[in-house]
Design a protein that fits this description.
mainly alpha
Length: about 110
């Protein structure tokens, strides 16, 4: 299984936060922080944009590290991803992701 597929099915390999981290791209960090601040209605600073992927050892954004309810749940259940969970299609935690990202749902279903 692709280690860059997040617990929620998103592809961390294509995430701008990961790309900024592995390329040490401060301009991209600033852009991502501004976009995510607007999207989430919270202050996100460029310094917070450090992540290697949510299932990979290494840096995580503060949200991914300790706040993400999807990651917390999957880790608690010892699932590689939410694709292993029989509650996937009824789960309120992951609903926003899979309802708005066809690729994430496809990734999760492909590993069931």
């Amino acid at each position: 299984m692709n280690k860059y597929i997040a617990y929620c099915g998103l592809n961390c390999e294509t995430c701008d936060a990961r790309i900024a981290t592995i390329n040490n791209d401060n301009e991209l960090r600033t852009k991502v922080a501004a976009e995510w601040s607007e999207l989430n209605k919270v202050t996100i600073t460029p310094e917070m944009i450090n992540c290697t992927g949510c299932r990979i050892e290494g840096a995580k954004t503060p949200f991914c590290e300790s706040l993400c309810p999807i990651r917390k749940c999957a880790k608690k259940k010892n699932y590689e991803t939410c694709g292993k969970c029989k509650e996937l299609m009824r789960c309120e935690k992951i609903k926003m992701i899979i309802d708005n990202n066809e690729g994430a749902l496809k990734n999760l279903k492909s590993i069931r």
